[in-house]
Amino acid sequence: MAERVLLDASALLAYLHREPGFEAVRTALREGAAIGTVNLAEVLGKVREKGRDAARIHAALRALGLEVLPFNEADAALAGELGALAKKHGLALGDRAALAQAMRLGVPVLTADRIWAELGLEAEVQVIR
Fold it and tell me: Distance between CA 125 and CA 107 in Å, rounded?
């Protein structure tokens, strides 16, 4: 299996909606991608808002092998430290959660948010579009 990649909510939503960049996410899913619980909650909430069956989509993602990682106390502390970036660059809690987990785990994070690549954090950011 290739190096594990962490998905941000924006990347998984691009995959689900077949938006530009979804191919990169599809490849990551085939190679063993993961997502944090905070970002999964964001994805399932947005899916439900669009009138889709969130439980069915969740089950399909798990069947594809998507690993769901718990958001732990270390992640919370690191996401809190990223608070200054939130104000300066408009990062939501889900953004900071994904970045914090990627930094703690030392794995690349896939996102559709281009600004992440300019943050200069100790996380490899792969922008899908």
Answer: 9
Given phi > 0 = left and psi -120 to 50 = alpha, else beta, which region is 92? beta
Domain residue extents for the chain:
6-127
Model confidence band, residue 85 (pLDDT cutoffs 50, 70, 90): confident
- Local structure of 112: helix, strand or coil: coil
Strand 109-111 to 125-127 pairing: parallel
First to last CA, the chain: 24
| Long-range pairs of 114-123 with CB within 8 A, sequence gap ≥ 24 | 115/89, 115/90, 116/8, 119/85, 119/89, 121/82, 123/99
- 6-127: which CATH architecture? 3-Layer(aba) Sandwich (3.40)
Q: What is the pTM of this model?
A: 0.94
Confidence (pLDDT) at 3 = 65
- 99-114 pLDDT, tens digit per residue, is 999 999 999 999 999 9
